[in-house]
């Protein structure tokens, strides 16, 4: 626990396009709103463009929270591949944060923020997301839950018997490529370009058009629904979870697709509710706070390997 703000720890959520930081009050399970800080990140920028934004965002959160930075215990939810034990980025070939490949992030942050290295902990972002939702969010009363995050990449995790672990299925073979090729932002950008010859920055324009009943956009969303249904079927068939929770930027448009995904899974014999995140972007920060507070998986706990297959959904 932090001396300056009893019951609070600093949670940080880093994605391909953003960073969010806030103190988390563990006694009341809430974000300390006055300390909340968020910045956009240039995902394909040079190291300084990315790291400077991270530093400024974290510094602002510490300052707004009125705490002594040297005493901060900071938990960072980070997309993989990443050496979470040593704090070194291994992201390459993922179209995000690639300029940080093999950068010692822990040492850099420790030096720039004057925070002891041992007070900086990293964890897979999807794992942290599901941990937060399992403890105080959408699946807090579910003994076995699955979580996915949809955005710049695709994260996946499993929570069972009080332990949350990364499932690492985003890079699993799927259709003609890998899972991320069909469920991430780049799929929407690529598909829209293929059909229109026009460029978009992310999935939001497609969902906005779909909401206004644009036929082309509705077709793209329909293809996405099929892809997501197939992925979730494969993810859940062996686990038989009590629920599946979906987060990430693409999850914000869940009213346009989640009901149909649920209907597709029922047709396939998976009568498991797929629900949107209750905590939104705060989920991973809550997960990191619980992690720092001692709620960690057993050492060397692992998940069995899983194959992703394609289905015909009509």
Automatic annotation (TrEMBL):
UniProt-listed Enzyme Commission number(s): 2.7.1.2
Pfam families, per database record: ROK
SUPFAM superfamilies per the UniProt record, alphabetical: Actin-like ATPase domain
The protein's enzyme class: transferase
GO molecular function: glucokinase activity
InterPro entries: ATPase_NBD, ROK
Keywords: Kinase, Transferase
Coiled-coil regions listed in the entry: none
Family of the protein in this entry: Belongs to the ROK (NagC/XylR) family.
PANTHER family listed in its UniProt record: BIFUNCTIONAL UDP-N-ACETYLGLUCOSAMINE 2-EPIMERASE_N-ACETYLMANNOSAMINE KINASE (PTHR18964:SF149), ROK (REPRESSOR, ORF, KINASE) FAMILY (PTHR18964)
Protein name as catalogued: Glucokinase
Organism: Pedobacter zeae
Organism taxonomic ancestry: Bacteria, Pseudomonadati, Bacteroidota, Sphingobacteriia, Sphingobacteriales
């Amino acid at each position: 626990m932090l001396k300056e703000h009893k019951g609070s720890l600093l949670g940080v959520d880093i994605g391909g396009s953003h960073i969010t930081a806030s103190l988390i009050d563990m006694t009341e399970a809430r974000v300390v709103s006055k300390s909340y800080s968020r910045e956009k990140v240039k995902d394909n920028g040079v190291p300084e463009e990315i790291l400077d934004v991270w530093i400024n965002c974290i510094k602002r959160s510490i300052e707004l929270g009125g705490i002594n930075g040297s005493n901060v215990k900071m938990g960072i939810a980070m997309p993989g591949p990443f050496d979470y034990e040593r704090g070194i980025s291994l992201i390459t070939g993922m179209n995000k944060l690639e300029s940080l490949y093999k950068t010692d992030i822990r040492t850099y942050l420790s030096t720039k923020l004057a925070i002891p290295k041992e007070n900086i902990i990293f964890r897979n972002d999807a794992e942290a997301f599901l941990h937060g939702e399992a403890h105080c969010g959408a699946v807090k009363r579910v003994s076995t839950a699955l979580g996915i995050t949809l955005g710049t990449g695709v994260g996946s995790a499993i929570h069972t018997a009080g332990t949350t672990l990364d499932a690492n299925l985003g890079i699993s073979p799927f259709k003609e490529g890998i899972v991320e090729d069909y469920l991430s932002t780049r799929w929407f950008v690529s598909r829209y370009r293929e059909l229109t010859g026009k460029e978009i920055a992310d999935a939001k324009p497609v969902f906005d058009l779909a909401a206004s009943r644009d036929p082309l956009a509705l077709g793209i969303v329909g293809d996405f629904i099929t892809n997501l249904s197939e992925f979730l079927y494969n993810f859940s068939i062996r686990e038989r979870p009590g629920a599946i929770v979906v987060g990430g930027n693409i999850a914000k448009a869940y009213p346009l697709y989640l009901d149909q995904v649920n209907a597709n899974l029922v047709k396939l014999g998976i009568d498991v509710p797929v629900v949107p995140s209750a905590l939104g972007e705060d989920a991973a920060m809550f997960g990191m706070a619980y992690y720092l507070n001692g709620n960690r998986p057993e050492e060397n706990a692992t998940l069995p390997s899983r194959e992703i297959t394609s289905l015909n959904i009509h």
